[in-house]
Description:
Structural class: mainly beta
Strand order of the largest sheet: 4-5-6-7
Number of strands: 18
Order of helices and strands: EEEEEEEEEEEEEEEEEE
Helix content: under 10%
Oligomer: single chain
Strand content: over 45%
Radius of gyration: 16 Å
Amino acid sequence: AVGYSFGSSGGAALSLNGSTWSQETLPSSVSGLNGVSCVSTSSCEAVGYYYNGSSGVGIAVSWDGTSWASQTLPSGVSDLNGVSCVSTSSCEAVGDNSSGGAALSWNGSAWASQTLPSGVSFLNGVSCVSASSCEAVGGSTSGSGAALSWNGSTWSQETLPSSVSWLNGVSCVSTTFCEAVGSNSDGNIGVALSWN
């Protein structure tokens, strides 16, 4: 589990051994963590940001079963909000940068930026069922929600009901079944969507 530690103004990572949560040590540069995905007890990826004195900068850290270590990200990523891994060599992370939404892929040794459809202003969540099947959700520059699908090489925008203002999270169990949650334009009332 990951998040923030207000006492130290830094990120927090906790592990559960089946009955007890224990705090783990993070690299000192981590200001906050927004998402985590594990494929085994010795392989996790967590994403968030650190504050460099003037602005936020995206960060990714990896867990090897013993300790957390910082990873290098492509320049320009200002925050990462979600990550989903299907193996030690296949993860997707989403967030934002100075020009809008951001998506990154992990191949086991390096993070690489991916091209998003135009009009995506931010991405909050991602869920992958394989290296060639992911869904990502967030918001668009038009003020409506955004949902994207990944086919292993390209992100494509999907059509949402017109009342959706933004989406915060998504979870997929197959290529044909996902649930996403967020808010709609009718007084910020919660919304839940299913993908077929």
